[in-house]
Specification:
Elements lengths: L1 H15 L5 H22 L12 H31 L3 H11 L5 H10 L12 H10 L11 H22 L2 H19 L1 H5 L11 H10 L7 H37 L2 H18 L1 H4 L3 H22 L5 H16 L1 H19 L5 H25 L4 H21 L6
Length: 414
Amino acid sequence: MQLIVNKLKNIINVLENYQISILSYIIIFFSICFIRNFLEVIVLNNQYTFSQNQNTSTIIFQIFVLYNLEWMTLFIYIVILIYLLTKNNIISIFKITLLFFNIIIIVPILNFFIYLKTGCAIDYLYTIQDYIKALLYFFFPFKDVKVCAGIRIEVFISILFIFIYIFLKTNNIYKSFLGSFVLYFLAISSMAFPVFILIPFYPFNPIQYNLFVNNFFFVPSFLDSFLNKFAIMIFFLLMPAFLIVYKIYYKNKKFLLLIKNVFSLETVSLFLIILFGFIINYELRNLFTSLFNIFFVFFIFIFCCLLHLYFQNHNFTVKNISFVLLILASLSISINNFFILLFICSVHYILNYFNFFNKIIYKFLIYLFIFYFLITFGNLIVFKDNFIKINIIIVLIVVFCVFIYLHKQLKYKI
């Protein structure tokens, strides 16, 4: 028995210490996610799963945004769970977890052979009753918990893997059971994400909780697509995970510096630039009409924190920063503005990357953007007669916030 344990430990040691670059790691991770998403949403779309999603843009958003956010969130929380129970090097945990993460690819393949022509629709669990039922009866083979057999097999194998890994690292059976139970809980909670993410609100109205979940995600707001709402709410689970990993890897010193930068004047300035763009388009009284809108405002603040940290760690010029800040203001006004300006930025990046970039093209792109930006605000000012003064004031506030941010970034030279 001890010989088997020693061999397993040697195998794990090899799997934890292979050489891989950060870029290769990221590419492999998203490749695994893409294969799973592709098989589920495209290959098995009409005959087997997701038959309700015929819209191409919806399918693209699912494959490249929503599901990847889910996989990333679950993946990082599994890494954190293993670290807390084993205290092993977190980089080693990331490496071995990536290898075993390939297990997610087997689900659509298993479902294909298990269900054949009958199919098995894959969807979230939307009621508290279905969530509790899945938690209690997930591994009961003949109990319908509205989850496909392929997923149930995947979760079972994953729990077995984490049990063995934690036991080999700690020789503690209790930690192994704890890790297995938490993974079980995380896996099922990810399947009932709409219910799970709003569970803190359950005590306030348990009888109408299912209706509350439905209204939160499916009643239209200024972000009409429920997929957008799902993605943003997943982001609220993902950000704490990133912060925990950051603290584990960089220890307390850099973590405290990170928190200081998060609540800086520069972050507030960026936040106001975007927020006032939304106020221009939706008006202040409409921005806080639903609980989701309030969550979204907080999401904007987190995004601004990340953007400020990105600016700090890259040698941008004031011109480039100004360009980004004005894009943000226009993005908040309309998603159409975002795609047009994203196209301009993409042309800028490609020309720069292939050394075709010169001052004339740079000036042309800057003037093109400024022209579009002014036209956008101009239309708002001209056609909203009752809000002319408000819009002018808000535009001035946006410009003022841009100058505040740039003033705080004196180390960047034009």
